[in-house]
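Archive entry: two folds, one per protein. Generate the first.
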Amino acid sequence: MSDWLNPGLAHLWLPYTQMKTAPAPLPVASSAGVRLRLADGRELIDGISSWWTACHGYSHPHIRAAVEAQLATLPHVMFAGLVHEPAARLAQRLAKLLPGDLDRVFFTESGSVAVEVALKMAIQYWRNLGHAGKQRIVYFRHGYHGDTFATMALCDPEEGMHTLFAGSMPDQIMAELPTDDTMRRAFDLLLETHGERVAAVIVEPLVQGAGGMQMHDAATLAFVADACRRHNVLLIADEIMTGFGRTGRLFACEEASVVPDIICLSKALTGGTLPLAATVARRHVFEAFLSADPAAALMHGPTYMANALACAAANASLDLFEREPRLEQVADIEAQLATELAPCRALAGVADVRTKGAIGAVELSCQPGGTIDLDGLRRRFAELGVWVRPFAKVVYLMPPFVIDADDLSLLTGAVRRVLTERAAALA
């Protein structure tokens, strides 16, 4: 380890990290199932699936075999003027799995870019139809849609992550999630007032992830979709985090019987093995780009879009959803999380406990003007043999779907223990 860790850290710039003060990252040597093996021999149960991607656990033999076979034949080829079998099969399978007529798949490499493409689709859709004034996007408080410039403009400005760039991003329209009658009237009025200049509403269905694991019900999502239809506005569903079973359905939109005009997918798409994302449009959206005019085409093309290795991994991941009881496993995880995190509600310094599918979140409180020692919490979790990475005010669990009950109890037990220790320190 000494021959690579410190020499390498001298040149690495880590994400979401103040490099001057942050503790050194933990060096991982290998992974299997739900465990990360560190270079010093310790093992950690991964409670967050590597940013919510490793839904089947690590090193699943079926995905590994698919990637190895693809590597031997065609690792990558440009996707302009050429096409290959893994991408064609994956697009067909996604179209079959997604609700309604979401059947035109545009591949990219990351969730942020998938959202960027969705925004371009929405704005150009209206432009192609002769409504060039519809250029604004409505997003919701506590929302998070990525770290690129266009997506930063769709993130809650009070969450703090992107406040440094205020004034340098496009001016979009933030709304409150319409969770009650008063908010529904306000949302309707917003779309009625601004509908002529709004291209789309973007929403994270059922769970707003990086904005604090905020949760809303299916009725709220259904109202948003209905309001978009009534006011002639497209609906973009950002299912980068919720897609592929995390909330208990294969896609969160299904719980509200909603078919968005555009859906964004990534994270668990390849089972946490290779970067891949997809922006999928309904038929009427795609058809607005069909024209004898070259300028009506969607002018976007990432160099590594539809990478053959990543598409092979994604096809193998979909195989596992077909062959193995993933949604049943999520239901079991949900029930266990709800039971075993419930005692946290009684702890000092805990504001709320929320569960949805294979997501469990404990929201913390602190004294006015105070801060939460996130680095200290992360360090303590690692000492207890689990990888849990709280952010903002939330300690959360989003384990791989294949985790067994005993390992999940070790995760929830660590959360209860660490937050009990924190409560004692606050007393």
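Generate the second and append.
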Amino acid sequence: MSIPLDDRGLLLGDGLFETLLAREGELILWPAHLDRMTRGCRVLGLRPPEPHAARQACEDALRDAGLGSQRAAVRLTLTAGSGGRGLDRPADLSPRLFAAAAAMPAPSGPMRLVTARVRRNEGSPASRLKTLSYLDNVLARRETAPDEALMLNTAGQVACAAVGNLFWVARDRLVTPALDCGVLDGVMRGEVLTAARALGLTVEETRCGRNVLEEASGLFMTNSLVGVRVVSHLDGLAVPPHPVTARLAAAVAPVS
């Protein structure tokens, strides 16, 4: 498909997207992804996509890419459509919905984190949504490549990785940054929190500085494409493993 040159998503990043895993044609955690996009639409003042049309777009993308039987990443994009002058939207918005799919091999081995200079703006509502304005994440990832970026917020608190949420173990508690640190409400983040409580783990959503991670163990990242992925090094220093990471990875494996 083609996108008009006056599309607000293209010109202004005015819109939302979801990236979800597909296995053998099944859209993993589809209801949670659709619900998050719907909640994001309420914040941005956009009409949410019709559920059947959104799902059909994803399934069509898989079919068109010839990935119906493979492990694939599906991106569903909703823009505010065309029109308006400058920042002002037209009175009658017509959001534009489309999807694309690409092969997504399962990740192998642990990952390394490097603290980026680019910060998350925890004061912006966009920091907690999966908007089309992802340039800060792009710049953070570019800065730390080939390693993954650890992003702090403007207050110097731990926020997230460039492509996912962060968790760690501290004194037998599972810890993750609170959403108001400028953190995306990740679908897999929610799955891990639910699994942790089912396993009887104490869970804490916190606000802390980068130094706390130096005393943590079992550091890992989550997103919908990788599930739970262990972090082996932080800024070049080895991170000690913790058995709770493997337990959580096994608990969410059916949906990751």
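Annotation attached to the second fold: The mean pLDDT is 96. The longest strand covers residues 15-23.
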